[in-house]
Amino acid sequence: MSASAIAAIAADPPDLTDAEVLDVLDSAYGLRGDLTPLVSERDQNFRLDAAEGQRYVVKIANLSEPEEITDFQIRALIHLEQSGCPVPVPRVVRTASGRVSESAYAGDACYLLRVVTYLPGQPLEAVTPDTELAYDLGRSLADLDSALQSFSHPGESQVLLWDMQRASEVRGIIGHVPEPGMRDRLHECLDAFEKRVLPVFPSLRSQVIHNDLNPGNVLVSDTKPMGVAGVIDFGDMLRAPLVIDLAIAASYMRRGDHALDVIKELVRGFESVIALEQSERALFYDLVRTRLATTVSILHWRADARSADDPYLKKALAERSAERFFDRVTALGRRTFDRHIFDD
Predict the structure, then answer these.
(1) Are 340 and 285 in contact (CB under 8 A)?
(2) Which residues of 232-246 are buried (b: 16+ CB within 10 A; e: fewer)?
(3) What is the residue-averaged pLDDT of the chain?
(4) Per-residue pLDDT reduced to its tens digit, 148-161
């Protein structure tokens, strides 16, 4: 396994005090208010309730993240704003002098701090999506990908274990999965990925993608019918085959008894904006399974690597449903899965 791939998700998040963060916000942004910690895999995030009544998200990048990657994430949000993307995403807040980020010091370490707007809405993880909401989510993802199609940046090729193009490297942590049968099934999934998918990746259309449309990164409205109110957290974004973005979203549509119907509508919503090519459809089953295999493996690795009271680990334990859905999709097989998702 690439040391840098695992390092990107293994490093401890920054640990600045509220006072240190508030000092930077005041001096650089002219912002004052109250901070509330937000759970993050590898960064340190806060919600700022400003004195003027506005809300912001403050993000402090991990020291293991190159500045080029942080700038990539910032510039992507600026690109989406300037391109008129119909999907609400956070907007970059500039410092008083016009910079898009600011240095924050803690001891001898220097971190990059940035501020973005706070989007209203409830996380999708708080509800079980129905087919109507899934269709809107698929359409919103396609709108987001359409806007990102023209975006490029030197930091778009970050090294990250969540990059499905690197899925073979997940083998290095499968040993943390306690159940031998599940370990065998995960290895079988990666065998199929390496045989069927990996050789085809270079021929697929690729672009910058969000790469992490999980229910915690999607905000939905409180209105009826419920719709997508925004997409957040662009920290896993990179350049990859387009169909991966849809497969990742599909892998999280696993709650309830009608998960396959929900995934079908997710795909239909996406294809209402961007039609999948036949080569992309042919890989969809393998990509959904591979994302689930990655989720299962990283969850168990993280459980061994972090303390039981780690906030991100506690939140990630909800991913245990990935094991059950991985087995369900595997039992269906490619032909039955594809027939359910793609047959009209």
Answers:
(1) no
(2) bbbbbbbbbbbbbbb
(3) 93
(4) 999 999 999 999 99
* Token pair of 6 as six digits: 């695992």
For residue 121, what are the CA distances in angstroms to 55, 127, 138, 212, 222?
13, 12, 18, 18, 7
Helix, strand, coil share of the chain (percent; to 5):
50, 15, 35
**HSE value, Cβ hemisphere, 13 Å, CA-based, for 113:** 27
> Which class would CATH give 3-117?
alpha beta
**122-342 shares the fold of 3-117:** no
- Structure confidence at residue 107 as a pLDDT band (50, 70, 90): confident
Secondary structure of residue 196 in the 3-state scheme: helix
Q: What is the mean pLDDT of residues 71-82?
A: 98
Is-contact 145 137, C-beta < 8 A?
no
CATH fold for the domain made of 122-342: Aminoglycoside 3'-phosphotransferase; Chain: A, domain 2 (3.90.1200)
pLDDT at 224: 80
pLDDT above 90: residue 310: no
Q: What does the domain layout of the chain look like in residue ranges?
A: 3-117, 122-342
The residue whose two tokens read 């090519």 is 277
